[in-house]
Amino acid sequence: xxxxxxxxxxxxxxxxxxxxxxxxxxxxxxxxxxxxxxxxxxxxxxxxxxxxxxxxxxxxxxxxxxxxxxxxxxxxxxxxxxxxxxxxxxxxxxxxxxxxxxxxxxxxxxxxxxxxxxxxxxxxxxxxxxxxxxxxxxxxxxxxxxxxxxxxxxxxxxxxxxxxxxxxxxxxxxxxxxxxxxxxxxxxxxxxxxxxxxxxxxxxxxxxxxxxxxxxxxxxxxxxxxxxxxxxxxxxxxxxxxxxxxxxxxxxxxxxxxxxxxxxxxxxxxxxxxxxxxxxxxxxxxxxxxxxxxxxxxxxxxxxxxxxxxxxxxxxxxxxxxxxxxxxxxxxxxxxxxxxxxxxxxxxxxxxxxxxxxxxxx
Length: 362
What we know:
Elements: E1 3-11, E2 16-26, H1 30-47, H2 50-69, H3 75-90, E3 93-95, H4 104-124, H5 132-150, H6 161-168, E4 170-179, E5 182-188, E6 192-198, E7 204-208, H7 218-226, E8 237-238, E9 241-242, E10 252-253, H8 261-268, E11 293-298, E12 303-309, H9 311-314, H10 319-330, H11 352-361
Antiparallel strand pairs: 1-2, 1-3, 2-4, 4-5, 4-10, 5-11, 6-7, 6-12, 8-9
Helix pairs in contact: 1-4, 1-5, 2-3, 2-4, 3-4
Domain PPM-type phosphatase: 1-362
Organism: Adineta ricciae
Protein name: PPM-type phosphatase domain-containing protein
């Protein structure tokens, strides 16, 4: 229960943009929960024009100030409205089917950092020369930076274990942005995006729009090795895992592979329950990046559907098989025989292991 999917819509002066995301959590659901809640907000900030950002800042500050004044007597209303204030101003529609499990303290921290992001974007971003590709990349990087920094205590404050839990877990992300007939895919990790297409003769085919960031991608292996001293070439990737531990080579969170060693010892080790918080051969961090690989595709009438899915799908089905199943479904063709546990009249009770074996054989 670590995967998430989110959808949103953004209005710009000249068009409407649509966002779709698949988020694959690991080490627990906390990071994918938060990335699903926050990433589209950060993307929207980089895509809004300065006059829109100024209006959003003023309205958000007004509402938050009013709610702060009444927080003592309207605590529950405060929590709910604070968490939705800026989101509703940035995103004209937002669909997330998962319950927001953040407590009011964390929601307020996230909202304040989002407001800072809006202020920074209003002041520093050259919106006349910012394209969608650079906007997506900067949103991924900025959100991850905030997630990892929020767990570091200020001055003499203690470590917040809830914030630490979020950034210690991790999440891959595959995001699609559609503007007119342009499709952008921003991917970090091993979730995947494909297009199902059909030509004039009715032939079905697959267009792969992303690459997995793991040890099976030789370009990704070369990138990773090039970013570290040559004497680490045999220790960075072991058993097809980053430092022998992590499958994806790009992800949100996972501060065990990003923070300096002294941060891991000081902030994470006292709360880490799985042994040494410092991975073996941890010599030149960061080893993990959230920087997405971004592709652009011009949509045509031949493109029929987009699939965003986590590795749980791709480990079992090839892109070609997924496309075939969807086309068959659209035509009303049953792709598999109906699965029946018992023959007619049978009273045999099957164990879960036996059911699993039957499904795998099918």
